[in-house]
Amino acid sequence: MRTPCRLLALALLLSAPLAAQQTAPERTGGKATSSWADVTAFLDSLERRGTPLRFSSVGTTTEGRRVPFVIAAAPGVQGPADAHGSGRVVVWLQGDIHGGEVEGKEVAQMILRDIAFGPLRSLLDSLVLLVVPIYNPDGNDAWAEGSVNRPGQNGPAIVGRNTTGLWLNLNRDYVKMEAPETQGAAALIDAWRPDLFIDLHTTNGSYHGYALTYAPGLNPNDTPANAYVRDQFLPAVRQRMKSRHGLETFPYGNFRNQMPDSLVLGWETYDARPRFGTNWSGLRGRMAILSEAYSNDPFPVRISSTYAFVQEILTLAAAERSGIRRLVAQSAGSRPDSVAVRSVLAPPTEQPVIAEITTAAGDGDGPFARRVRTGQFRTVRMPVYDRFIASRREARPVAYLVPASLRDVAGLLVRQGVQVEQLSAPWQGPAERFRIDSISAQPYAFEGHRTVTVEGAWLGAEPYEAAAGSYLVRTDQPLGTLASYLLEPASEDGVVTWNLVDRLLTLRAPYPIARTRVPVRAATVEQH
Asked: What is the pLDDT of residues 174-184, one digit of tens each?
């Protein structure tokens, strides 16, 4: 759908910025997207001009490219302690996690320029902004025709691919953390503890009438911070987008069926598992926002829509900084007595959804089918499935006891930011073991894994001895819910899923990781 405001935004985008560097789309009238070299040159030019920005790196990709990391902060903020002590909201903004979804990368550069020289500079009074403009440089520079790398996306003509140099999907890597990009970003996130995580994408699903769709963290282990971003913050941003920019936005999803007469079947969101970045961040007790620009819009329009969305998020976060920091602190201190380890869609709510009427194009009528557009839009009242509830919960113990042989499990927890200790002497006490009743592996490889599911149940506590050298993971810590989610054997996205305990899984035998509900006072040494 088009409005005068959107056409004005497009015109503004294609005009030269005032006294500052230009992105590749600005230089080419929206015909080309930035290469990794373009982005690094843009950032280098900002650094040479002297700005309130500091430049570093997330790490180096497998193909040898540096992943830029930019800190936009007031002069008195030198590090994470200063940032949180200042009362400012710490925001993490990343683009290009999928190398073919390119407007987030351009918007991140524009935001940095406008903070350095333009109308957004006053945001640094209230925010500390951490920006990764090109999170997937290897995928970004794996150039091909858009019809190859991003079928159905409306420009630019040449784009990168969504996966990395290792052919990993970085937005499926937040649990297993195999990619160097993920590991480097997780280390920075653990150090800076951002209050708000923003991930910029492009949707290539159903035909609808929205400039942009969005989602909070969808994992059903809800927190005060996640509930706030879902129920108050994002609805307020949606209203701002409409009133200030003339742009319609809506919670992310796709039609269950795109046949015009079947649109009433509903609109459905994507997934609750924390392998996706915003779900992972929400599970960690932070605010998280997924942005999905509409792939059928022209590339310059997607840039302007995404810029407006990020601008409204940042200005609202600045205005609500005290409340945001309070809710994030409450979330970090939350200690629920159980953990949701599996999820199903929650019952829907009836809402009006703007659909574009389409006709068949030989690709079916499913949520992601390519169809023939008519340019006609209809608002249809339908069930909207935009959140998840727990289908299985497990009690949250005091601690988990992990055998010393599972060093990869301990290492993953440490990379996740979970506090892990190691017993310096044997520990004896009551502990529970999980009886494995079935083990199944997917028949196909996904991200290089045949993911595993186990069924069974925890048995009553019995005397147990954990040997010296065993790893101890206490749940009375800010990431205790995340630790439980990863270690629980029935979790839909934990260490069992990603094959970290395969060699110790035996049918009708105990799961190798025990849990206890009593305090563990044995001498420990911290595991780094």
From this structure: 999 999 999 99
